[in-house]
Amino acid sequence: MKTALPFFLLAALLLAGCSSIDSRIKEKADVFAAADPATQENLRKGTVEIGYTPDQVYIALGKADDRRERTTARGSDLTWIYHSYHEDYRGTAMVGYRRLIAYDPVRKRNYIYWEPAMVDVYRSRIDERIRITFRDGKVAVIEQAKD
After folding, report:
1. What are the tens digits of pLDDT across the range 44-88?
2. Which domain holds residue 69?
3. Which of the 8 DSSP states describes residue 90?
4. N or C: which end of the chain has fewer CB within 10 A?
């Protein structure tokens, strides 16, 4: 339980900092109101289509985890990259020994013995979920990993 508590506190802290779809719609209310009903429904579902503006993508997906700009002879492209974060269980590992003291009421004496101290091992993994490329202020390319 001691190892799980910091993980849950960290998860709660990260989730508290995340913006919800409703908060993003309120933040960009004029952009959302100007969109047609089909686009509004897509934005609520978190779906992005070719031709959307950066504000519409922000409403649908939130703030990008990474942004890259590419300049070519044809002009500049802006790419927003969204990641998904995972922790994979890798097993247990021995990190040393811990001392235990046991009292023997018959002999009225303490016995000290050592046992291995084990911890669960997790590995953080970051996967690219979706990549949106803007050209001339509109979505031109949507790259998404297929499962």
Report:
1. 999 999 999 999 999 999 999 999 999 988 889 999 999 999 999
2. 4-144
3. E
4. C
In 3D space, the residue among 25, 27, 65 whose CA is nearest the CA of residue 45 turns out to be 25
Q: Hey, is 48 helix, strand or coil?
A: coil
Count CB-CB contacts under 10 A for residue 79. Answer: 18
């802290």: which residue's tokens?
13
Please tell me the distance from the alpha carbon of residue 56 to that of residue 46, in angstroms, as a whole number: 10
Across the beta sheet with 75-104, the strand order is 66-72, 75-104, 109-135, 138-144
Higher pLDDT, 10 or 81: 81
- 55 three-state secondary structure: helix
Report residue 51: phi and psi, to 5°: 100, -10
Cβ-contact 88, 125 below 8 angstroms: yes
pTM (whole model) above 0.85? no
Of residues 19, 57, 25, the one with CA closest to residue 133: 57
- Total structural domains in the chain? 1
- Asked if 56 and 84 touch (Cβ cutoff 8 Å), the reply is no
